[in-house]
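STRUCTURE REQUEST FORM
Protein name: Cystine/glutamate transporter-like
Source organism: Cyprinus carpio
Requested output: structure tokens
Priority: standard
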Amino acid sequence: MLRKKWVSKRESATDKVSDEGTEKTVKDDAVHLRRNIGLLPSISFIIGTVVGSGIFIAPKGVLMNSGSVGLSLLVWALCGVLSTFGALCYAELGTSFRKSGSDYTYLLETLGPLTAFLRLWSELIFIRLATYVSLAFGQYVVEPLFMPCAAPTALVKLVSMLGVMFVVAMNCWSVSMAARLQVLLTFIKMFALILIIIPGIMALVNGKTENFRNIFDTDSLSLTKLPLAFYSGLYAYGGWSYLNFVTEEVINPNRTIPLAIIFSMVVVTVFYVLVNVAYYTMMTANELLMSDAVAVTFAGRALQVVAPGIPVLVALSCLGALNGGFFGVPRMLLVGAREGQLPAILSMIHIHRQTPLPAVLCLYPLVIIVMVRGEIFQLINFASFSRWLFIALATLGMIIHRYRFPDHPRPFKVPLAVAVIFTIVCFFIVGLSLYSDPWNTGGSFALTLSGIPVYYLTVKKSYIPKRWEKTFSDLHLQIFLEVAQQEVQTY
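Status: completed
Returned output:
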């Protein structure tokens, strides 16, 4: 028999969650996402999502497009500073707008529904973080089994699919379990970075400096390729905005979000620069460019005793970033559906497990499709354009919102100079990349703009056939998945 709470909101569970993050008295079985993410899980969520495949994949892309060891290290440091500026802007946005959904919500509140829908549209097309990281996970699991030969691409993608399947199952099963897994994997991945940094720095101190001679040799420098070097570096720092996807589940977000963001970005920037110094200490630039698995090559040089375990640690690091992606992005789909820009089924919560099950399941086939047809570096360049375009638009919207609504509560306020510098640099990189790699970035831009007619045909004024609408909102699907609309307002 269909329970009444599956299909309608109950008047007895309409208490709101307070601004301080503590819940008022509600019935224990009310369907809603709980506020149970404290400071440590928040820090683990950011670091665990940022530190994934990027630090093990991007060094090759940064060096390839910067042209020298010295300039590549400078790019890594500048990417850390730029990412920290952006993270601080998102700390202001996350404490000013209390809804989950990250830049989708901020674009909706500042620049309007069309821009926000294009953000949703681009996420559905590119599925950025999950695709890259899952491919890197498969690469590091399979690569050691076939060294020195190249790993079979089909096997890499099969293992990647298994990793995605595990993470999807975890996030469908339990929010708290997924959060605990994130904390555990974050500690593991930081241990992996320390394991790389210590022998590299020790070798450098002991006089192994030959790879740092003439490090600013500019013979291979191409200004048109430099934005792509920043893309690869910024990809490695990607994920600092993912805590904002789950704002409604963070305890005391006014305090937790800024603290978690500042601490996490300082730690990640320092670690990333030191890891790259360690790489170059043990490998020449040419050797790094020839390696498909940089950390594995490094381990073979500096960590012979524990070298077989390095790929495992790297794979677990990628798994942590993948888990963070599948934890955060479904919340954006949920908010988009709640705002009427996606099918209503995606806004529903599992009535027993309190997880956004439909939104998580929706991502799985999309990730698999993109994964099957993509190659890692091509995917990074192709989708980074869209990602940074919307981040720049979100911070531009923040600046505009400040002047339009000066009295709007802003518990955390970033210096205006930081927001302006970050926004200008983002637009500059986005614009220059159209010139540097017009095929990939132009295609990304075109696919993003293709969402405009979709918006006007399906959201602004729906021309969707009634039978299709019934498919997405069918009560039988709701009963099968055991999901219902939220019964408690969490923002």
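Reviewer notes: The radius of gyration is 22 Å. Residues 41-484 form a domain with the Amino acid/polyamine transporter I fold (CATH 1.20.1740.10).
Form closed.
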